[in-house]
């Protein structure tokens, strides 16, 4: 069986990786199709290290032409794909979202039906079936987290990073927009000198020119001895989540992922909104980031200012049970089974359908 992963963005890879490993272990062929216009030269070495044959395409049209020529058994997509009708008739398609965040786009990407879409949690499955009752959806869990749930992920070597492993560790994982990153002080690691601080920004913070101020902040924070800032080559969040005791984020899928590990999260509601989402254009923000589909107000403590955060961190680490029941519910509803076998279920489905 030949399976191709349509890698329109480099941050799709952590979601694809566990499935790729399972496919290879079962003796199947795997290829990547990477979009040069989105990914860029700087990630070519990172992708090459995966040891997979990679085809570089300029965009969806060129990808569709490649897929027709290669005639794979399956193609995985991380989003919608407008050239589905151009694919070879025997090729089946699977959609796998790269996150389980609060954006309505999580659901809308299924407006163009594929052979199957793999869904994570029980509530998500119910909701998406209501929206697209004639499509095929299979609940499997969240493949990205498999390496943590089955103990394959070892985490970061804090000693090697110059951090003190006897201290509690905070993970700050801001998204790029809307982001709390620019609302944090230049010297905030000094206020948390009793903690290790791991900072894992979104890939776009590094690769998109307009986020230069975010990059300037990262450079300042990296100078503190209790801080490790991920590089743009650190594609996977898993080692950071494995090593951390508490998460800070704002509107990221990471909130759901970290809560599924049984660890506390703090939601930073003091983020910066770009000009095109402010004032009379606020409706654009609500349309893209509206939380009608996924309400996460009870997943953990919300803070509305950096000042509140100073008190919240020690309090949440002292009593990690405060939101424990809510984390368990959110995990069931949005992440799904935590047995580390989501990738196995996905591959088993591919094999069974291919036999029919």
How many helices in DSSP terms?
16
**Mean of residue pLDDT?**
90
Number of spatially distinct domains: 2
Walk across the major sheet and give the strand order.
Answer: 3-2-1-4-5-6-7
Shape: globular
Query: What is the chain-wise order of helices and strands?
Result: EHEHHEHEEHEHEHEHEHHEHEHEHEHHH
Spans with pLDDT under 50 lasting ≥5 residues? Answer: none
CATH topology label of the largest domain? Rossmann fold
CATH architecture of the largest domain: 3-Layer(aba) Sandwich
Secondary structural class: alpha/beta
Number of strands: 13
CATH H-level superfamily of the largest domain: CDP-glycerol glycerophosphotransferase, C-terminal domain
**CATH class type of the largest domain:** Alpha Beta
Distance between the termini: 13 Å
Nearest-angstrom radius of gyration? Answer: 20 Å
Which short descriptors sum up this protein?
alpha/beta; Rossmann fold; 15% strand; 356 residues; 16 helices; globular; seven-stranded parallel sheet
Description:
The protein is an alpha/beta fold. It has 2 domains: 2-149 and 339-355, Rossmann fold, CATH 3.40.50.2000; 169-335, Rossmann fold. Helix content is 36%, strand content 15%. The protein has 16 helices and 13 strands. The chain has helices spanning 13-25, 36-39, 44-48, 60-70, 105-108, 122-131, 146-149, 188-191, 203-207, 212-221, 238-243, 254-259, 282-289, 306-318, 324-335, 342-355; strands at 2-7, 29-35, 53-57, 74-77, 92-95, 116-119, 137-139, 169-172, 196-199, 227-229, 246-249, 265-268, 301-303. β8 (169-172), α8 (188-191) and β9 (196-199) form a beta-alpha-beta unit. α1 crosses α16. It starts with a strand and ends with a helix.
